[in-house]
Amino acid sequence: MTNSNMTAGKRLTSALVATALSVSVVAGVGVVLHKLSADPNGTIVATKEADTITINGKVYPKASLTMGVYADKEQAKADGFTGNKNDWVQFGPSNHLVLPANTYVTMTIHAYDGGEKLNNPFFGKVVGTVGGTMSVDGIDVSSIPADQVQHTFTIHGLPSTSQDPLFVNIPLQHVNADENDEFLPTKDPNTNFKGHTMVFSFLTKSAGEYVWNCEYPCGDGTYAKFGAAMSAYGYMSGKVTVTA
Question: Helix, strand or coil for residue 232?
Answer without folding.
Answer: coil
